[in-house]
Every structure is written in C-alpha cells, then in structure tokens.
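Lecture notes, unit on binding sites. The following record was shown on slide 14. It pairs a sequence with FE2/S2 (inorganic) cluster.
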Amino acid sequence: MSMPKYVDNIINNIVDSEIRMTDNAHKPSVVVPSGIRKGLTNYGDSGFSLFLRKAFIKGAGYTDEALDRIIVGIANTGSGYNPCHGNAPQLIEAVKRGVLMAGGLPIDFPTISIAESFSSPTSMYLRNLMSMDTEEMIRAQPMDAVVLIGGCDKTVPAQLMGAASANIPTVQLITGSMLTGGHRGERVGACTDCRRYWGMFRGQQIDEAEINEVNSKLVASIGTCSVMGTASTMACLGEALGIVMPGGASPPAVTADRIRIAELTGKQAVQMARDGLTPDKILTAKAFENALRVLLAIGGSTNGIIHLTAIAGRMGFEIDLEAFDRMSRETPVLVDLKPSGQFYMEDLHFAGGMPTVLRELRPLLHLDALTVTGRTLGEELDEVAPFAQHVVRSIADPIYPVGGIAFLRGNLAPEGAIIKQSAANPVLMEHEGRAVVFENSEDMANRIDDPALDVNADDVLVLKNIGPLGAPGMPEAGYLPIPKKLARAGVKDMVRISDGRMSGTAAGTIVLHVTPEAALGGPLALVQNGDRIRLSVSARSLELLVSADELVRRREALVLPKPVDAERGYRRLFFEQITQADKGCDFEFLRPPTMIARVPARDE
Ligand code: FES
C-alpha cells in the first residue's frame, strides 16, 4: 500500500533534517534525530507519531518552516513565590530573540522553582526534586539544546545536576543579583545585612520601629541576594565551570547587561546544538578543579562545596575534600564581597565580574578547559583587558591570605566538617570550650533565649539533628543565634557546631556539615552538655574530649530519631535515597554506579 504524499514528505524530512553531532576532537559524526523529530512517542509508526506531534503544535500557530529549525528549550523557573527569578519573563524574551537571530526555534517550558524563603521544610529538601524535574523534562521534550534560567540558591545546582545527567547542549542563564538599598544613609543588601540588623535588634541596639523600617530596604529589587551568598557563589562557579556565558555571572537582574547576556545565551545555544557541544565536554575534571579554586578565591558560600560535589558526582567525579583543603592553603581570597569583605555583587560587576577574577587567578587555573562558547577558558581570558578597580584584589594583595573554606576532621567528624574561615573570628579559630547542647531545632528555639540557660561566651554551642536526614533537608540553621542574654552583653560570635548548613550570607566561627550526621548515629549524637570540645582550624581538627570508653557507653544507650511522615511520596524517596554532605546530598540512585576520577587530582 502506498503512503499518502504528506506522510512521504514527513518521513523524508526526518532524514533531511537530522543533525550531525560531532565532538571537539572532530571524530566521525553521529547522526541523531533533531528538533521536532526528537523523542517521538512510539506507536510503531514513526511517520504517524511525527504527523500527530506536528498537528498538535500547529494548533499554536507554528508553520512547517519554523518546526524544521533546531529547537532550543528554555527552562522557565519564574514563579510568584520566587522574587529572585522575577525577571524570568524578560530573560525568556531575550533568549528567544537570540535563538531566532541564530536560526533556531525557541520554546520555553516550566519546571519547579525553588525560593529560599518559600520552601518548607527547606529549599535543600527540594533541590534533588528540581534536578529530576529538569532532567526528565529535557529528556521528554524535543529540544536540541537547553537554556536553564536559574538564580536562587538551589536552582542553579539543581539545574546543572539535571543537565549533567541529561547531557544535551546546555547553557546556564543566571537571573542576576538584586540591587542594594539604603537605610538611614547606609547601603544595605540581603542578606548579610538582614542578619546584622536582626542581631542588633536581638541585642537591643535598635528598636522595633527601626527593624520594621529596614525590613523594606534590604531587598531593593527583584534578583538574587546581593552579597557573595550561595546564589552569587553558584553563579560564579557556573562561569568558572564554563557552563555560563563569559561575563554572565555578575550583571544585576534589572540591568541591560543582564538582558544582553540572555540574548547571547540564546544565540550560543543554537551554535552548541550545531556543534554537539554537550555538558560532558565542558563539565570535566579540570573544570571542577577550576570551580573549586574559584570557590576558595571568591570567599564563596559553604553550600558551594555541597552543590559542586553533587554536580561533579553526576559526571562521575568524586570531590576529594582533603585535596581541596590543600588547595585552600595556596589559594587566597581575592574578592572583597560580604560576608567575607565589604562590597556587593553589583560592585563586582562594575569591576569586570568573573573575567576579572579569573584573570587574576589565571596562573592557578586549567586554561584548556572548554566553555560554552566552544573556546577554552584561556582563549576567553586572552580577551579580558585589565583596568583599575578595587573589588577584586591581586594574588599579591589578597583580602585573606588563604582560601575561604577549611576542611576539618576529628573524632567529632570522622568523615569531615567545614568552616568558612574567611568569615570567622580569628580569635575563636583555636578554641576549647564547654559544650552547650541542643538536641534539635525545636529544642534550640525553646531554650536559646531562656535567661536561665547555663551559657557563657567561651562555651561551644552544639546543635544536633539538622543534617540531611535529621531535619530533613539539612536546613541553613547552622548559624545558631547568640543567646539573647549574651547578645545583650555585647557578645557577637561564639564557636557553633552542627550537622547542618548555613546561608552563604552569614558569618561567624561556625563549623558545619559535621559528617556523619547525628540522625545517622554520628559522634555528634553522643555529645552531652558540659563535654569539652576543641577546635583547631590551623590543625584542621575538631575533637570531642571524652574518653573512648565513655563514648562506647553513650553509643549503647543511643536512640536515633525516627523519620516523621516518611511513608509515602517524595518524602519517602528522600529518606530512602539521601546521601551525606560528602556526597553532595544527592540521591544515591541519581549518581552513577562508579566514580571515574577524584577532583582535584592528587599530585602523586
Ligand atoms: Fe533567593 Fe537569596 S533568597 S538568592
């Protein structure tokens, strides 16, 4: 039986418009279906599947000519609950313009959006869900390349985890930082200043009228937090990884520069589809080593290490925290942004953004790492002209002599813990004190401000059960508040230890990510009020000064908390699959079965 003419045409078109995917070594090309012909539903008749698909999308007014183009999907994470992504409509419009200019067809699609303040129990609990959503929608829908619009803390890592697994040409587009505001003549920005003002309010240095007034000043526009918090950190790491357009990390959300980057991103995505420039060629071991180096040099968020571990894990790379710590000893902090320094993201942008940082770090980077432009990092940096500025220091004149993050071990953290030393109090980084223990967040909330709490400024505050399983989702509760009675006496910092995380916008002598966590029976679960704890950042050690016999006795009596409401749905999956901080808190089943290399490579 002969086919109708239009079906013949469709089948011929399938062959005509297949795309030749080549790799960068110019190996023989592989022909794969492209554009609207990708991933057809299998009814046993591919001609009919395509016929049906085209019939439906033509309902939206598309022509055959449009549908024959390379398709660039655009992950739209705009949401009324996410002001950090408030410019998503403008970005999508600009990406579409870029795609059309390059001869492609842009199609936007929604995925989950996660905003820090609107994600209970915590945004981290939802990061892996967003990564699965991103990966599956990239796989399910026909697209030759994808632009991922992300910004708020967990969105960029979630999208990069998903894209790493889906492995089609990908460019990450950052939403950009918010503008800074002004309060009574002082420049302010979220959220380092949020914490500072709240600390002043708790310490009775400002009254209720002023705290209410500053509440309207801290976030001056849509966009992500204006300091070197997790969102800014992940934007910078994206550029260091080569998966964000050069110069794409720093433009504030409401600027023309941000819109221009979006247009360029769309244009480049089409080229990447033509060249078959997939994430596995960009997210290499060298790229992750560059990103680790940058994390240290920007005084980046401690969350950056968890997210990089998770993204690298998807590519089969294991982050070696001991080697990362050695890297930290030779990588100074160059970027003078809060909370480690004094400036804001918009200042970094005026100072040339990440190209300026990467140019300063050039001797410490792998310059042959490939970027989304198809050129190497070194080739991109060759084009960066130096100019006088005061936000990014030189290696010879850093704001902090070694890297921002130190990796600790000891009997209290056998699998490790970290401290953001660049934002800690130097006096407290070598400290021994008496433990004041809170069993969980609720216990802390109930007692921390109790005037009868037995606590002194020299004590060590310990919070248990806020790890990946414990809370669940490892909330950013590791920034324990200073007990009110001490805050009112002028105490600004104490050693604080937990198995949780803290916001990248926070500062203090705070030990985080203690692994294994208390809810898993880690040694943190055994700490009792009055125990002595010794922190030595110079020796990279965290020790519980309790005899081994006593710890055995306590372990025998230990009763672990049971997961709550974990019988069904995502919550059940979460409790069954979540890994510890040293594996990036990814789900076990989303990681490849074996790791192919350690990053950074050891110099053996
Ligand atoms: Fe979204 Fe800070 S709350 S970036």
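Take-home: Confidence is low (pLDDT under 50) at residues 6-17, 19-28.
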